[in-house]
Every structure is written in structure tokens, then in C-alpha cells.
Amino acid sequence: MIGPFRKMTKYYTDDMGLRKKLTISHLVVVIIPLILVSIFLYSSFYDMVIKNMIASEQTLSVQTSDTLKATISQAAYAANSILDSQVTRELFGEEGDLSVVESVDGQKIVNYYQTILAMIDGELITDIRIYYDAPYTRLSDFNMLETPVFQPLEKMTSSYWYGILSTTADSALFCPSLYLSLTEIRENGELAYITRVPYGEGKGDAAFIAVYFSKDKIQNILSQNITVNDSAAYILNEKSTLIAASDAALTGEYFTELDRIKELTQTENNFVTAPFLEQKLYLGYHVIDNSDWYMISVIPSSTVMQKGKVLIFEFLGLYLVVVILAFIVAYRLSGSIVKRISAVVKQMQKVKLNRPERIQAVQETQDEIGGLVHTYNYMTDEINTLMEQQERTAKELRLTEFAALQAQINPHFLYNSLDMINWHTQKGEKEEAAKAIQALSKFYKLTLSKKNAAVTMAVELEHVSLYVELQNMRYDDKIELLIDIPPDMLGCMIPRLTFQPIVENAILHGIMRKPEKEGNIVITGWREGTDLVYLISDDGVGMEQEVLNQILTGEGKSSKGTRIGVYNTHRRLQLLYGESYGLTYESTVHQGTDVYIRIPEMGADYEEYHTMESTDSSLPGSSGDAADNGMQQER
Length: 635
What we know:
The protein is α+β, with helices and mostly antiparallel strands. Helices cover 50% and strands 17% of the residues. Among the domains are: 72-213, 2-Layer Sandwich (Beta-Lactamase), CATH 3.30.450; 218-304, PAS domain (Beta-Lactamase); 409-604, Heat Shock Protein 90 (2-Layer Sandwich). It has helices spanning 2-15, 18-29, 32-84, 86-91, 100-103, 106-119, 160-167, 182-187, 215-223, 248-254, 258-265, 301-333, 339-350, 368-407, 412-426, 430-447, 457-474, 499-511, 545-550, 564-577, 606-614, and strands at 125-132, 150-152, 172-175, 191-198, 205-213, 232-237, 242-245, 272-276, 279-288, 293-300, 454-456, 479-484, 493-495, 519-528, 531-538, 582-588, 592-600. Helix 2 runs antiparallel to helix 12, helix 3 (32-84) crosses helix 12 (301-333) and helix 16 (430-447) runs antiparallel to helix 17. Mean pLDDT is 78; it is low at 558-562 and 603-635.
């Protein structure tokens, strides 16, 4: 039985005609996608559903918080309208003046009273009270029996909100039920916005305006934020006092302190999972602007997971229907489509982004697709061989060019430094000569190090500082070097000997060409996206536009020297990172020069650096070629 089975399998997979293969293959297509979706797509699709649900809850939370803000703003607006009215200013103008009320027209107070009553809509604003200080007791004469707006402040001195406002500088306060007296809750409302009315001379509070509003209205808005079963939304103030809740029982079960919520979520409207008792919750908060209130949304993880599973099963059912319909259509229209043709097409499409890859065939086949696969694999092998040869050639050329650029850096700085040391020695200045020798030794220890060709910014700055120190020994401390690199960039990598050629060029051909032969060099740096940008500025003589145009081209040699040091540095960076990186010069004659150095923060191929360093036998001590005999290189 094994022999015939293998023979039948080989006939089906390799030698059977395409039409017959399609008839059998499409029967399998009905079953395989369902299995693949169940196994491979379950977790990813489930995660996508969960993320979409959380995103939807976040959007809904923003909308609900905006609605809450607009709602409670009505209470604040009513209180502020009363506070800003002309009658309020006339009534409470001066502390302790018993004639104040008598000086205000009685009809004006009546109209004022009617305006206040008109603000009470019964739906949101349930009541308004003005609690007056002792000198204004005659205001009670204007009260109506049904709604006595004017009330003595002494009735509220034992309330929690009075204690807060009388001991703080807050001008107003949103009050939860906890801040109100039992009488206020029973007769006026469960929530309130209370603002103080100061005396005209600022000697205390003449009165307090209290706008009471409905807790049920706030809770109804919170209930609209609930779209997932067993979830809750509630409002806390800065002191974690409960203001209102969509469901009192669930809120009591899920209640979490505001500081803990902020600690878990980090940012506003950021839903995160947090363990709570024996379950996990999705927590998020949103600030209700212009108040100290926060809306907290709590969603049980189990409920979200269950809803996600329902959506997945609905998707699978729909997918099954689509697969059946697709099978019927595909069976009639795809007579010439086969599996191995699709494989060839996919491999050819990959050529747009990557190298072509062979199609792995278990054995040679005899049908039309077998011949196509064999031809494609042969073509792939030939193309890959040619591409490998081209890459090796390009890499060898790149390494050779880099080594040649390094070899062009000449040792004239060493000659000048030794000449300077000799000069100090002849003058008997042993300490200066010893200091110069130590600085020069450390300079070349860094320069000739056989470690990576890429060094940290801290090492590069130490190297260039030593160079300037040596030049100051030569030029009588005429050069001031200022370094302002952010600390977090000091560990970033940079090709060795990047700054020194530019600084030397700035000294010899910028500062030393000034009549006073002294000046400043400033090195700064910053990040731009994924790039690092360094700026080396000097206040030297600057450059003409013609010289500026040629300095990075390697052309324009003069009788006094070349610009090979700066050009080499520019080409090194371009060879390492690409044409979009390197040096950029900006200069103004008689004012100075700015050199921008741009490199990628993570762009260096350090393995290639090692290869390049092993081929570098040059002595990269300096990029200048000016000797102490007066020969100077032009910019």
C-alpha cells in the first residue's frame, strides 16, 4: 500500500495536469483558511479588537468629559453672572456700611432677585443662594417665601465649604455633597458651585454666591459613558472625594484613589490595565477643565475579553460564508492558477526590495510549472552571483578610497609642535617644554589609538581640547575654546579625527589671519530627528564666496597650500554615512565661519570601521600643512 500511495502522491503533486489539480485543490481551500484563521489570526485579531474597543472608550471619555465641562460651566456661569452684575457691586461695595442696602433702589433689587430666580431651571440648576455678612441683614426683607435667595452667612459658618473658602485664597469652589450641610442637600441641591463676594476695599468676604445643581444630571451624563457591561464611570476631586457616579454599587467596588490612578495611567485619557482584588481593570481618567474634578472610567478586563470573543466568532462566521462563495467563484474562473506559479510570482516581486531567492523544490517535476521553477532558479543563481561580485568590488573600492583619504593627512602639526618644544627648550623654559611634551604625548596617544575608529564625543572633545592647548602654547594663549555639548550627547559615537581638522583650519586660516591674531572657537551640538548636528564656529576673517564654494570639493589649490584636511573629513563622513551627511560651511567675510557637521546617531557600521582601521597605516595627526616658517594654507 505504501508504494501505490507514494506513486499517487507524486502524480498529484508533480505530474498531474493543471486542470485536474485545481479540481482537488479547491476542495481543500474551503477547509484550510478556517484552520489558519483559528490558529494564526486569533491572537492578532483579538488584540486588534481589544485595542479598537479601548480606543473607542477613550474617544467616548473625551466626549463625556466635554459634556460634563459644558454642564458644570452653566453653574459657574450663573454664579459669575451674579457676581459681575452692577447690583452685586452696589450692594456689597463697602464693609459694614449699614446704608448700602438703603442706597440701592428697591425696585432694582427686586429685578435683581427676579433675574436670579430665572436662572433656576429645575433641571440642572436647582437653587441659588446669596449668603450675606452681618451688615446686610436687611436683604432678607426682599426674600420671597417660596425661594428665599438672601440668607445670613452665620447659618453656613459650620459647613465644610465655608471652612475651606475662609481659610484659603481660592475665589470659588466646586462642592461635592460632602462639602454641603444636610440642610443644603435636602432643600437646595446635592452639588454646588460657590464663589466669594469680597468687600469693595478687600477686607474680607461680604457674601458668598452658591449655585446648587443636580447630581442626577451629572450621573446621567456619566451613564452615557457606559457601553460595556459591568463598567463604571465616576468623578473625583483633587482630594479623591466622590462627586458622582454612574453606578453607586460598581463605583464602590472599583473605587481607586486619584493619586493611584494617576500613578498607574501616567497621562490623561490613557487606559491601562491594573490588578484590583482578584480581577484586572482598564483604568483611565480625564480632567474636567476649569474645575478640580476628574472623570474616572473603569472597565473590567473580563468583560472586554468576552466582547472581543463575540466579535471574533462573528467574524469567523462571516468569513466562512465568504470562503464558500469565493470557492464557487474561484473554481469557475481560476482554471490556470496553481500554487507554484504563485510562488514564482511572489519571489519575483521580492526582487523589488531584496535579492531574488531560489524556490525550494523537493524534487524535479515533469509538468509545466516544474520547467518554470527550474528556469527561475537558474536565473536566480546567476543574478545572485553577479550581485555578490559587485558588492565585493564596491566594498573593496570603498575601503581603498577611505584608506587613501586617511593617508593624505600629513604630519606637519607634529613638526610644528616639535619645533615649538625645541624653541622652549632653547630658551630654558623647561616647565613649558615638559607641559607641551605631555600634551603632545596624550594628543598622539588618542590620535594613534588602535581602538575603534569611532570614539565617543567625550573622547573627541578631549582630543580637540588637547590640540587647542598645544596651539595656545605656540600662539601665547590667543585662542579661546568654548564647548557646549549636551551631556546626553557625550556618549554618542563619532568618527575619530572629525573635529581637529576643522578646528585647525579655523585657527590657522581664520583667527591667525586677523591683525590681532586672537579669537574664539565655539563647539555646540543638538539632535535633529535621528541625526546629530554639531556646529564649530569661529570669529576669524571668514571666507570669500569663491573659496566657500570650493572648500568641500577638493579643488581650488593655491600656491600656499591645499584644503585637503577639511575635504578628507567631509569625504570620510560621506563614505561612511552617505551623500546627505558631512560638512556644510557658512561664512561672512571679516566676521567668521560656521561649520555644520551632520551624522546619523545610530548610522555607523562598526564592523566596517574595524576593517577600515586595519587597513589604515597613516599618521592622522593633523589636516593642516602650514609650517612654522610662515607657510599658511588658504581657506
